[in-house]
Amino acid sequence: MMFMFCWGTCVGYVGSVQDLLDPLLNDKKYPAVPFLRTVTGHRLITALVWLVGMFTLSLPKQINTLRYASVVGVTFIIFFVICIIIHSGMHHLGGPTDLPGREINLATQGMEAVNGLTLFIYAFICQVNVFEIYEEMSPATKNPRTMTRDAAISMGCVALLNFLAGLFGYLDFRSEVTGTILLYYTPRQDALFFISYIGLCIKLCVGFAICIQPSRDAIYYCLRMGKTSDVPFWFNWIVSGLLAVLALICAFFIPDITIVFNLLGGICGCFLAFLFPAYFYLYSCCFSYKMKYRVFHIIGLLLLLVAGVVSLVFGTAASIYGMIDE
């Protein structure tokens, strides 16, 4: 399950690079050369970005080697959200709401609303790299309390950025948006978005490398080879390279990255975020706490199980329905 989620995320990140390149190469006012606007041209540029950024960053063993690149990528994510807010305020915020495609829906119902559930689950999955990050923490701060605090702060920042990007992006394009919002901006005509799109490519390269690590860890555990630190460098490079190449090939034949993220969130995300933690607690330490703590933990356990089952059933069904409907 860990391998499916992390490697599938790598496929989605390569697809996101293609979505970033689309408005850069197919701008109506400043079009690129004809070859780069073809499918082959798109794939060639995507492969170059993959080779320079994703493939090379996937080879190191330690996740700590990506810390500086990750800081740069997160900074550009914040910059991109700021650009979304500025663009919304300068163009369409407060515009007419009675024109076709410009309506503001305060709530969505039906399968479309349920389909968004899987994206929410996918966006907040942070468990896959917890053990690697915890193992590489400095001894002075290496304890569960610090790890919980850092994870809570990180998820709070992610929630804030997602809320701002979703709110102002929707107020900007409203019901015209279907799929990723990256296709609706014109970076060739806006210097701020041109810079932010380049930064997003850097962040996708870092995210690709971060997700490759749990993927290869899952392979090593299945082969009974231990942790990544126990594996020879040459074998680690071969496995990482093969996973990266397969992710690139698969991304070329997936028409919409939203399909990937919906399925990952609906199937793998529900197990990793809800069901597996609940069952792990149930079968390991559910009855070892004192009575004053046991009630609180059992309530949390039941909430995790119910949320996991509901998300798995309805989220996966909505994702499959959306694929068939398209």
Brief rundown of the structure:
This protein is an all-alpha fold and 326 residues long. The chain has helices spanning 2-25, 39-57, 67-90, 111-123, 130-135, 144-173, 191-222, 233-252, 257-284, 291-325. The chain has one domain (1-92, 107-257).
Written description of the protein model:
It is a single chain. The chain has 326 residues and is mainly alpha-helical. The protein contains 10 helices and no strands. α1 (2-25) packs antiparallel against α7 (191-222), α1 (2-25) runs antiparallel to α9 (257-284) and α7 (191-222) packs across α8. The longest helix has 35 residues, at 291-325. The radius of gyration is 21 Å and the shape is globular. The mean pLDDT is 82.
Spans where pLDDT lies below 50 across 5 or more residues? none
Helix content: over 70%
Shape: globular
The termini sit apart by 27 Å
Structurally, the number of domains stands at 1
Q: Summarize the main sheet.
A: none
Instruction: Give the total of beta strands.
Output: 0
Radius of gyration: 21 Å
